[in-house]
Amino acid sequence: MQEYSRLVGIDVGKKRTGIAQTDLLKTIASPVGTYSPEEVFTHLNKITKESAVDKFIVGWPLMPDGSEGDAIDMVKKFIAELNKRFPDIPVIKIDERNTSTKAKQLMIDAGISKKKRREKERVDRIAAAVILQNYLDENF
Fold this sequence. Notes:
Oligomer: single chain
Strand order of the largest sheet: 3-2-1-4-5
CATH topology: Nucleotidyltransferase, domain 5
Radius of gyration: 14 Å
Strand content: 15-25%
Helix content: 40-55%
CATH architecture: 2-Layer Sandwich
Shape: globular
Largest sheet: 5 strands, mixed
Order of helices and strands: EEEHEHEHHH
Number of strands: 5
């Protein structure tokens, strides 16, 4: 593991995937953007070329009772592609329950307008940051 590297958080969705990354000291997660399935690997490739990436932290979509839901298959396929394209970067799955709710609350707390809070792209990239920050808080 390199001393100065990033962690990348990913909130996989059917229509959009939110991406977040840490600073080089791995202290805080920040949203990067929201990308279509066709664009997401182009952006991940760009991130990995700009700086070392230590791990991908991927949201694992569990149901409220902790069971695996329908979205699991989509995320498994995404992780398989991630492993194929970036074989040297480990993928960590983290429970993503309530991340969208937390993302919406963070936007309210930050004073973001109701109109902007309705933008699903904004919620997805903040949810990716929440997933990544949860991992940081539990592991660093």
